[in-house]
Amino acid sequence: GKLVHDDWNDCSLVDLNRSGVPLIEIVSEPDMRSSDEVIAYLEKLRLIIQYLGASDCKLNEGSMRADVNLSVREYGAKEFGTRTEMKNLNSFKAIARAIENERERQIDLIEAGEAVIQETRRWDDTKEYSYAMRSKEDAQDYRYFPDPDLVPIIISDEWMAEVKSKEPEFRDEKMARYISEFNLPEYDADIITLYKPLADLFEAAVQKGSAPKEASNWLMGETMRIVKDKGIEPDQVKLTGENFAKFLKLIENDVINKTVSQGSFLKQSLMVA
C-alpha cells in the first residue's frame, strides 16, 4: 500500500490499491551530484522500463516513484555527510525542487553549527518544504529478517544472456535507426522516440507504406497539439497504426483537404463521434 497525506483534514490515509502488484526496486550508488543529474538518470530509467513494457512509469499514478537520499559535505572532504531520505515525490519537477530545497536546508544547518539528523522527511510540493517523519538509525534498528515464504532465486549467467537476447529495441537505438533508415531529422527522431506510443504509431504507419516524414509531421504536430489541448498522455491517443496509415493515404491522394483532415484526425485520435 501507500500513504496518502491529507493536509486539509490533517491526517494520512492508507491506499491499498497497489496490493499484490510486483515491485521492482532499483538502488543507485551515491554518485549523483546535482538535481539535473538525478532527473537525467530518472528520465533514462523511465524510458528503458517503458520500452521493456514492464510499466507505464506514471509518477502521478504511483507506477513509478523515487525516494531521494541526499547529503552534503564541505569542499574537498572525502567522507559523505549525514544523509536524509525524502518521500512523497510524485513528479520529476517535484524531485528537482525537493533536492534543491534539502540541499539548502542541510547547508544552512551546517553553517549555523548544527548537526544534520539522519531521518526520513516528507516533501510537500505545494508549500515547497519537507517535514520530518521519523528518525532513521542504522540497519540493525530496522530488525530485518529473511522472509521464509520468499525463497532465494538463483540468476545464472545463461539465463541473463537469454533475457538480454530478447531485449527490445531501446530508445537510443530506435532514434539512430530512424535517422539512418528513414532520413528523419534528429529533432523529429528525438521527439517521436521520447514517447513509445508515438514511436509505435510511426512504425506501424511506415510499415503500411506511409511516407516517414509525413507521418512524423502529423505525430509531432497534430498529435502533440491534441495531447496538450486535451490534457492527455500520448498513450491515451486512440488512433491505430492501420487507421493512421489509411488517413495519410487519403491526404496523399487529395481525397480530403487540410481542414477536413484535421477534424478527422481529432476524431480518430480521441474516438469521438
UniProtKB/TrEMBL annotation:
Stretches assigned to the Asn/Gln amidotransferase domain: 200-259
Listed GO MF terms: ATP binding; glutaminyl-tRNA synthase (glutamine-hydrolyzing) activity; transferase activity
One of the Pfam families matching this protein, by short name: GatB_Yqey
SUPFAM superfamilies noted in UniProt: GatB/YqeY motif, Glutamine synthetase/guanido kinase
GO annotation, biological process: glutaminyl-tRNAGln biosynthesis via transamidation; translation
Annotated keywords: ATP-binding, Ligase, Nucleotide-binding, Protein biosynthesis, Transferase
Reaction(s) catalysed by this chain's protein: L-aspartyl-tRNA(Asn) + L-glutamine + ATP + H2O = L-asparaginyl-tRNA(Asn) + L-glutamate + ADP + phosphate + 2 H(+); L-glutamyl-tRNA(Gln) + L-glutamine + ATP + H2O = L-glutaminyl-tRNA(Gln) + L-glutamate + ADP + phosphate + H(+)
Start and end residues of each Aspartyl/Glutamyl-tRNA(Gln) amidotransferase subunit B/E catalytic domain: 1-160
Function: Allows the formation of correctly charged Asn-tRNA(Asn) or Gln-tRNA(Gln) through the transamidation of misacylated Asp-tRNA(Asn) or Glu-tRNA(Gln) in organisms which lack either or both of asparaginyl-tRNA or glutaminyl-tRNA synthetases. The reaction takes place in the presence of glutamine and ATP through an activated phospho-Asp-tRNA(Asn) or phospho-Glu-tRNA(Gln).
Assembly mode: Heterotrimer of A, B and C subunits.
Protein name in UniProt: Glutamyl-tRNA(Gln) amidotransferase, B subunit
Organism listed in the record: human gut metagenome
